[in-house]
Automatic annotation (TrEMBL):
<dbReference type="InterPro" id="IPR005184">
    <property type="entry name" value="DUF306_Meta_HslJ"/>
</dbReference>
<feature type="domain" description="DUF306">
    <location>
        <begin position="20"/>
        <end position="121"/>
    </location>
</feature>
<dbReference type="Pfam" id="PF03724">
    <property type="entry name" value="META"/>
</dbReference>
<dbReference type="InterPro" id="IPR038670">
    <property type="entry name" value="HslJ-like_sf"/>
</dbReference>
<dbReference type="InterPro" id="IPR053147">
    <property type="entry name" value="Hsp_HslJ-like"/>
</dbReference>
<protein>
    <recommendedName>
        <fullName>DUF306 domain-containing protein</fullName>
    </recommendedName>
</protein>
């Protein structure tokens, strides 16, 4: 089953990378701790194997590879703006969780969930 923006398609099982490339994903949770109010964290998976977006205060870019539901993210680099300490901490948690992600899925509400070892997780919704 596939649910995107409230529409449910019971017979559909989305193809790996196409799910990630559906648009801009806005992160709403990092490792089960939510995110700072009014901060913005995004994921954009391009069809060129690059992932990019906003990490809280800074922008980031990296490389990704998909095999089925398995995900590998490497070479993540961020800009270096001066940020509030709390945003810096959130950004560090986000980048670490992104780099640790090893699989992905859509949950029952259509949210994208990236999961990794030792409890690392990100949850995001299509904007």
């Amino acid at each position: 089953m596939l649910t995107i923006k409230g529409d449910t398609f019971p017979e559909c099982e989305p193809a790996g990378a196409l799910v990630l490339q559906a648009g801009e994903w806005v992160v709403e949770d990092i490792n089960g701790g939510g995110i700072i109010d009014r901060s913005r964290v995004t994921l954009n998976f391009g069809n060129d194997g690059r992932v990019s977006g906003r990490a809280s205060c800074n922008n980031y870019v990296g490389a990704y590879e998909v095999q089925g539901r398995n995900l590998t993210v490497t070479q993540v680099a961020t800009t270096r703006k001066a940020c509030a300490p709390s945003l810096n901490q959130q950004e560090t948690r986000f980048v670490q969780s992104l780099e640790q992600a090893s699989r992905f899925r859509l949950d029952e509400t259509g949210a994208l969930v990236l999961e990794g070892e030792e409890g690392a997780s990100l949850k995001a919704r299509l904007e």
